[in-house]
Design goal:
Radius of gyration: 21 Å
Mean pLDDT: 87
CATH class of the largest domain: Alpha Beta
Order of helices and strands: HHEHHEHEEEHEHEHHH
Number of domains: 2
CATH architecture of the largest domain: 3-Layer(aba) Sandwich
Number of strands: 7
Distance between the termini: 34 Å
Helix content: 40-55%
Largest sheet: 5 strands, parallel
Strand content: 5-15%
CATH superfamily of the largest domain: SGNH hydrolase
Shape: globular
Number of helices: 10
GO molecular function, one term: hydrolase activity, acting on ester bonds
Protein name: SGNH/GDSL hydrolase family protein
InterPro entries: SGNH_hydro_sf (IPR036514)
Strand order of the largest sheet: 2-1-5-6-7
């Protein structure tokens, strides 16, 4: 409003056509720059990760945890490859609640795991994780009092993850069911933070918005309007498969118990969203 009014004021005072054109061009450039910021600088990881650490909150652990669904999709896509994942979550947490350095300690996280038959297996990997997927609290990246902390923490944690030989990845969360305007706000915040630290960003929030636009009756959030239904978790998992693992979820045999029509729809939404977001 302020910039447009400035152009009109200049015209009203008899400003030259050149001056008016320059002011209008500045407005157009600024608008273009804002849109350009939405384009991620990183479109893929150098290598597909075999071992992934998820750092987040209840958006991750709902419905028997996002990482479990991603693993099942990945193993269905590549039956001969062993993928591994661990989820470190704190209810309601932001990134600043997590001690990322401690999560990479050799005698801490994932020093043992459970194998088939509920047998405890000691982990002896020299390199614990290939990538760490991180998300902030559902409002933190756009909250007036917390968005600065999000940008600061994301950059700090990216350095910690890289120090331990892993790739930092940001998980773009979705809008609340009753606040669709959050989609664009979160997309900009996560993309900006990802670009600032050279991180891959998973566009899960954009996938939710696309699915709701194409099929409004499909419920992706539970009653609190924030957390995901099973369909929401599955859509997020398909988006992770497409972006982090570089595999199309379309046609994947793992449906998480959803009916084939719904699973197929969500697979296509995830793949289309990732292609659009990375401009492939």
């Amino acid at each position: 409003m302020g910039s447009i009014s400035a152009v009109r004021l200049m015209a009203g005072r008899g400003a030259s056509r050149t001056a008016i054109w320059l002011a209008a061009a500045t407005i157009a450039f600024s608008a273009g720059a804002a849109r350009a910021e939405m384009k991620p600088k990183v479109a893929q990881l150098d290598e597909v990760p075999k071992a992934v650490l998820y750092i987040g909150n209840s958006f991750f652990y709902y419905n028997n945890s996002l990482h479990n669904h991603v693993l099942k999709l990945a193993h269905a896509a590549d039956p001969g490859t062993h993928y591994y994942a661990t989820s470190a979550t704190i209810s309601g947490s932001g990134l600043n609640w997590h001690n990322v350095e401690a999560l990479f300690s050799t005698d801490g996280m994932a020093s043992y795991s459970f194998a088939p038959g509920n047998k405890v297996v000691m982990t002896t990997r020299n390199k614990k994780y290939d990538a760490a997927i991180m998300m902030d609290c559902s409002q933190c990246p756009v909250h007036p009092q917390l968005k600065g902390l999000f940008a600061e923490t994301a950059a700090k944690d990216a350095e910690i993850v890289r120090k331990h030989g892993a790739d930092p990845v940001l998980f773009m969360s979705w809008a609340y069911a009753d606040k669709p305007e959050m989609t664009e706000q979160l997309a900009e915040a996560y993309t900006t933070a990802g670009n600032a630290s050279g991180m891959l960003v998973i566009p899960a929030g954009l996938a939710f918005a696309r699915a709701k636009k194409q099929q409004p009756d499909l419920v992706l959030n539970v009653e609190d309007k924030r957390h995901p239904t099973l369909a929401g978790t599955y859509l997020a998992a398909c988006t992770v498969l497409a972006s982090v693992y570089r595999r199309s979820p379309v046609g994947n045999s793992y449906h998480a118990g959803l009916d084939e029509k719904t699973a197929t729809f969500l697979q296509n939404v995830a793949w289309e969203t990732v292609q659009d977001y990375y401009r492939k």
